Amino acid sequence: MKKLAKLSKGLYVALCFAFFYIPIFVTMLFSFNSSKSLTKFTGFSLKWYIELIENSEIMSAVWVSVSVAVLATAISTVLGTITAIGLSKNRKLIREWITNINNIPIMNPEIVTAIGLMLLFSAMKIEKGYLTMLLAHISFCTPYVITSVYPKVRSLDPSIANAAMDLGATPWQALTKVVVPMIKPGIIAGVLLAFTMSFDDFVISYFVSGNGVMNISIIVYNMTKRTNPTINALSTIVILVIFIAVLVVNIIPLLKRKRAVANEKSN
User: ∠ CA 163-166-171 to the nearest 5 degrees?
Assistant: First the structure.
């Protein structure tokens, strides 16, 4: 019975992985298809990658996605980290109120947030385009950073920063050399989450963009309306970039730990 239960669990996990990853492998496979068919592989070719590079509209969308994601991640990480640190210094009642308010954008359906931001920009008479998309991404990424960083800040000993300043450190030095290094895992998690949310966003971007400004999600949506295998090539590149980024994020800490262990042994 135990062997049967173990086999069933293994089969269930295998089916889950197959369900999640087979479509990705199929997409990557058909990005090298020589024909336009999305169901029959007729031969190996790089023609869709060449078309992708030569398509100025897609390249423009890639640039918009990457630049907006990088800027939104950087700004929201700074805002979220400062807010989380400041929040930990407030009274319990204020902390609870702000924490609950911070959870609203996370729990709110994207379509509601998108319509709200669209109405806000229209009421403020801000022309829709790159700026409105960037502001929208900062607004919905910041709560995720706060949620990631705040638990790390709360776990710190509140006297650490004071002790650093008693030893001669300035408030800025206490923040950058004592507090930030200790909450670095939370900041890194917030950065990764913010970048993923921004780079992947479609609904909010669709409602707040204009004047021909499109990110990858919008361009992919437009491409799905007609048979265009270039979408497979674009998806494959995005998948590979994300895979390499995840690999690097996991390998670098491992190498640092190994180096630290090697240094300890040599000393």
Answer: 85
